[in-house]
Design brief:
15 helices; alpha+beta; two-stranded antiparallel sheet; ten-stranded mixed beta sheet; 385 residues; 2 domains
Length: 385
């Protein structure tokens, strides 16, 4: 108990320096947690992908559309249970800064493919009976202050003109990590207008979502789908939903690598801050350690004093940093919700942050402990200041 008392007293001996060290470690832990959270947000689509869903796009590029006639051929392929299509709309609500995902779904069957979207029966009925109906995620409803029954006008970019949508209801995510910011409406609303105004663009969809009976056969089924359209004007590329989401993450590969490097550098900063403090502390107390050795304190006692002080400072800094992650991440998620609808603070992130702080506390104490234990009493007593 006396050793623990000395640890606390030594920690508080230089209150300003200790406070600044704790603050520095806390800021470093906060940055580490935020970097890890940004990486988790980038990969959130991959982690939420279903193993029994495939995505079929144009072999050229996802921006190229596919003919609606492909559906029947895909449905005949063994192992395919359900097929539906989706289309990116890309409209502007008042200002280009008001970005949110907008998708045209084939019909209610698409919602069966995505059980993570929870829609009540009344909303689904209204969506099926009103051609310009739209179901909006609760996050986007809150963001713009919309309510059921409102008319929302979007200015088309991919599909020119003004488009009016009637909000008939909302959807929620089955889990906290489900994207509940999407704007989902009926594809036939686009198709009807295309047939009248741009007939050449009628009968075209963005991609196919394919539900399969056995995830273990995803590679074989994907190959069979693409083989069906080989050497045609509309060749396809089919992959698992996770791989499809991963392809978007790969586009930002340099950013991801940069964030990972930053996370390593942050750990290095923590180590430097803690090591500097402990080195200064040990240098100032060499004569004290010599006196303690003279009085019978062993190397183990010195190890406990120096290491305990380092660990205590690192622990307090870690607590400050981890506690700050939650409000700061919440603020960032609000500011960037258009780009990161899911901004999860994973348990893994908190564990890494905690072990980084404590690990740096241990490493920072190694040199001072070694020096104090190996020091000869006469050398320590000779040192002044």
């Amino acid at each position: 108990m006396r050793v623990f008392g000395l640890i606390f007293k030594n920690t508080l001996r230089h209150k300003l320096r200790t406070a600044l060290t704790i603050l520095g470690i806390g800021v470093a832990i906060l940055l580490l947690g935020l970097v890890r959270t940004f990486i988790a947000a980038w990969y959130s689509g991959v982690s939420q992908s279903a193993p029994d869903r495939l995505v079929t796009t144009s072999k050229i590029n996802i921006t190229f559309t596919l003919p609606i006639s492909q559906k029947e051929k895909i449905e005949r392929i063994p192992g395919v249970k359900q097929v539906a299509h989706g289309t990116w709309f890309g409209g502007i609500y008042k200002d280009p800064k008001n970005f949110f995902a907008q998708f045209a779904f084939e019909d209610a069957g698409m919602f069966h493919l995505y059980p993570e979207f929870i829609v009540d029966s009344a909303t689904m009925h209204a969506w099926e009976t009103q051609r310009n109906a739209v179901i909006v995620g609760v996050e986007t409803m809150t963001r713009f202050g919309w309510k059921v029954g409102d008319i929302v006008r979007l200015q088309g970019t991919i599909y020119p003109g003004d488009w009016d949508f009637l909000i008939v209801g909302t959807y929620t995510g089955r889990t906290e990590t489900t994207d509940d910011s999407q704007f989902i409406f009926r594809w036939d609303y686009i198709e009807q207008r295309m047939e009248k105004e741009w007939p050449a663009r009628a009968g075209e969809v963005g991609w196919w979502v394919v539900k399969i009976d056995d995830p273990a056969r995803s590679a074989a089924i994907s190959k069979a789908i693409d083989a069906e359209f080989d050497n045609s004007a509309d060749e396809t590329k089919t992959q698992t939903e996770a791989a499809f989401q991963q392809s978007f993450v790969a586009m930002s590969g340099t950013i991801i690598i940069s964030l990972q490097v930053i996370s390593i550098l942050v750990v290095g900063i923590i180590l430097l801050v803690a090591a500097n403090t402990m080195a200064m502390t040990a240098r100032e107390r060499l004569s004290e350690y010599a006196v303690m050795k003279t009085l019978g304190f062993s190397g183990g006692h010195l190890f406990g004093l120096i290491g305990g002080e380092s660990m205590l400072i690192a622990f307090l800094g870690g607590v400050v940093g981890i506690a700050a992650i939650f409000p700061v991440a919440h603020g960032i998620s609000i500011a960037l919700r258009a780009f990161f609808p899911v901004f999860p603070i994973e348990a893994k992130t908190l564990i890494i942050a905690a072990f980084s702080a404590l690990g740096c506390g241990i490493v920072a104490a190694v040199f001072p402990v070694t020096r104090a234990v190996r020091m000869r009493i006469v050398d320590g007593l000779r040192r002044v200041g």
